[in-house]
Amino acid sequence: MLRSKRWTDDDGNASLEFITTGMILLLPLVYLVLVMAAVQAGALAVEGAARQAVRVFVQSATVDEAQARTERAIQFGLKDYGLDAKDATVSVTCTPEPTDCLTRLGTITVSIAVSVRLPLAPSVINVDVPLSVPLKATASERVSKFWSAR
Predict the structure, then answer these.
(1) CB hemisphere CA count around 89 (13 angstroms)
(2) C-alpha gyration radius of the chain
(3) Residue range 139-145: average pLDDT?
(4) Which residues have CB under 8 Å from 72's CB, separation 6+?
(5) Average pLDDT for 30-49
(6) Distances (CA, A) of 107 to 14, 63, 98, 100, 145
(7) Strand segments (E) across 66-131
(8) pLDDT tens, 81-133?
């Protein structure tokens, strides 16, 4: 009788079970929060950089100045969120005249695509599972009807 009571005695095990179960449930939740924060920061960076790039493009005096200012705006916009502008894919399209972007009432569209790496994912692992999330943002703006080459 003494032996069977010793095997069924639960004194002191509840706290150990609570800690073990808590850690098993808490660690994936913390990682999920880190991933969502990184993806949200990347989305804000790409969207903000595209919006600011198109704004400075339409306010420039020449196309060369516009391209330089757009590149600088993208670099600053992505760097503020810890992303490298070298990894970004940028495209600038102009309508109705693709060869002359700064035409009155023309529309400029800037698209930026970037891949945000997942936090705590080592770069040396070569697996079939993607270790980054691709993000893309597009912003368009019209050139003012009062615009004139200065």
Answers:
(1) 7
(2) 26
(3) 90
(4) 56
(5) 94
(6) 66, 14, 10, 11, 11
(7) 89-95, 107-117
(8) 889 889 899 999 998 888 888 888 889 999 999 999 888 877 776 666 678 89
Sorted by sequence, the CB contacts under 8 Å of residue 35 that are 6+ apart come out as 118, 119
Provide CB contacts within 8 A for 138, sequence distance 6+. Answer: 50, 109, 110, 111, 112
Return the structure tokens found at 24.
Answer: 């098993």
Token pair for 54: 């198109």
Rounded-to-integer distance, Cα 71 and Cα 85, Å: 9
The CA-atom distances, in angstroms, between 28 and each of 18, 112, 134 are 16, 31, 22
Crossing angle of the two packed helices 13-58 and 63-79, in degrees rounded to 10? 170
For residues 3 and 80, the model is more confident at 80
CA 74 to chain centre: 13
The identity of residue 71, as a single letter, is: E
d(CA 139, CA 57): 11
Enclosing H/E stretch for 14: helix 13-58
Q: What count of other Cβ atoms lies within 10 Å of the Cβ of residue 47? A: 17
